[in-house]
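Annotated sample (chain length 341).
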Amino acid sequence: MLIGRQFACLLARIRGWKWRAGPMPANAAGSNGSRGQRPPARALPPPLLLLSGGSRLSTDMSSTDFNPTYPTTDWKVAKKHLEESDHTERRSYYKAARFVTLDEIQTWKDFAAGENLKQPRTHYKKSDVLNEKVSLLQEDITKLEIDAIVNAANSSLMGGGGVDGCIHVAAGPLLRKECSTLAGCSPGDAKMTSGYCLPAKYVIHTVGPIVQGRERLPDKVLQSCYETSLKLAIDNNLRTIAFPCVSTGIYGYPNGQAAETVLKTVRHYLEEHINSFDRIVFCVFLKVDYMLYKEKLPFYFPFGKSSFAAVPSEPPSPKLKTVDKDDKQTKNLQKPVGNQD
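Output written by the structure step:
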């Protein structure tokens, strides 16, 4: 029996099948699990073939060859293994104890219907189809179980502070390994890696502009960050993507002006590629950004019946007195969501 089972395991590998030792974990969350708990990571022992003389021959594939939690793993092998893994197995590698599925994220259409929001006059036409393809969420972006999350990275792509550092920590050591092969990234451009131990399958890294002093805002560079990230998602058939607030915070881009550039860019891009995405999520972490997006979204994605204005109007000025570089106000509004897992 032992020889037969080992021979079957080896044969399965030769045929390209996936072999797992033992049954699936009983606590693995289903495909529509709500705030699911990830199953524990499994380390699979290498199958052994018992030869006629009693010696043992090990196959050349062990659990360390593809386990994304091990720093000694070859990132190429781990990336390929994750791309071929089923939903349940990928969840066993998540570092996060909790994750957020797409079904849990309200569309902008449903969100606007449940909130007492004021509809400003706007030259953008109301579209229920578009309003079902965007979402506003105040959450830790590393918890989202979707196709891709965007990392507001530095030019080296090797990890830093803020969102960039959190993503590297949550993804595990192999993210840095893969990033080291990409030769950095220019401002306004984007590059893609595996998500490794993240609930998101992939990470799209984009480098936003740095704003210092009172110079003219580099809105074209910020616009390019979002356009190149969206194009990269389309090129790789990724239908769900989440953006943080690129270039705000320590990069100095005023929050309010950034939100306007972002929403205008995404609105126009989504109109031209309406069938390419199931959801684009504006995933913000700070209350100041949540309030700004909540106020500006009705202008770019109107939900009211009498919202159309023939003459283009300006987006609403924020109710928050955001000069956006006002450090005192930003600190007062910095209320992150919950604890980091």
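Annotation: Residues 23 and 198 are 24 Å apart (CA to CA).
Annotation: The radius of gyration is 23 Å.
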